[in-house]
Amino acid sequence: MEVIIQPTPNQLTVIASEIIRDALLKKPNLVLGLATGSTPIGLYKALVKMHREENLDFSKVTTFNLDEYIGIPIEHPQSYHTFMSEHFFEYVNIPTENQHIPQNTTDNYEKFCISYEEAIVSAGGIDIQVLGIGTDGHIGFNEAGSSLSSRTRIKTLSSSTLKANAMHFDGQINAVPEMAITMGIGTIMDAKRCLLLASGDAKSGAIAKAVEGPITAMVPASILQMHPKTTFIIDEAAASKLEEIEYYKRSYANMKKLMSQNL
Ligand code: F6R
User: Fold this and answer.
1) Is the CB of 195 under 6 A from ligand 1?
2) Cα first-last separation, the chain
3) Does the beta carbon of 33 lie inside 6 Å of ligand 1?
4) pTM for this one?
5) Among 24, 29, 38, 54, which is 20 to 30 Å from 216 by CA?
6) Which residues are 65's β-sheet partners?
7) Catalytic residue at 67?
8) CATH, residue 155
9) How open is the CA angle 261-262-263, to the nearest 5 degrees?
């Protein structure tokens, strides 16, 4: 597990976008796991810029989104389908048939969830999974108490998630859908690499628990301690409750030095 601490949220997006660009240049048919929410917006902007200015080619890329609300149409302004087209899909050349977001209109959720897992496997598995983190430590919509080996399924949102997401629904907590389809924690753990981005003081408690606390279903992101290749890319504010800040900064500086010597 690597922890990269940067002064500002903008620098997180630079690092994350460069990791994705490098991976895409090495593997044009990269399989990306994608998140929504406020955190990855800057990352999508940076990738769109690379597409426009450096001709970064997404034509062979396949994507799988983590989650989607149940109970609002996919055309709803706050659906994750709408979010992904407004922030990313409209501006890059990922073929529509390669874009996967959980379907919230199916009449057979169980069958759909199995087919979502199968589609990930038949695409060759997720190469890079982008993650945000909830203030309660959730990843995807895997709320506290989720099985650490769960697969794609339906979850009810916790009251802290409903409260946090109300800002996207004109502050109306009652307007936030209470249920969602989400990749499971086991599904996320199968990704070859995870990049978890977090910024701001509000995330500092969740980051400290996820990185340095015990592994527990009560803090779903803590399972990432067991993942062979996870990078937490966080700003100073989100890092502020970590105990080993000095160590994380020194390790990252050493790795950067080593990489530059090898080039
Ligand atoms: C959304 C998702 C969620 C968010 C988390 C943080 O696809 O997976 O776990 O990453 O709720 O949301 P923001 O970034 O809005 O703070």
Assistant:
1) no
2) 23
3) no
4) 0.97
5) 38
6) 34
7) yes
8) 3.40.50.1360
9) 95
Q: What is the mean pLDDT of residues 1-19?
A: 96
Domain count, the chain: 1
- Contact present, 83 and 70 (Cβ < 8 Å): no
* Cβ neighbours around 10 below 10 Å, total: 12
How far apart are alpha carbons 149 and 102 in whole angstroms?
19
Residues in the chain: 263
Domain membership of residue 82 as a residue range: 2-261
For tokens 């409209």, what's the residue? 90
Dihedral angle of Cα 198, 203, 208, 210, to the nearest 10 degrees = -70
Pairing mode, strands 230-235 and 2-6: parallel
Which residue bears the tokens 């050493």? 254
Q: Which of 47, 43, 159, 41 is nearest to 92 (CA)?
A: 47
Structure tokens at 263: 């080039």
pLDDT tier for residue 261 given thresholds of 50, 70 and 90: confident
Does 38 sit in the ligand 1 pocket, CB within 6 Å? yes
CA 111 / ligand 1 centre spacing (Å): 25
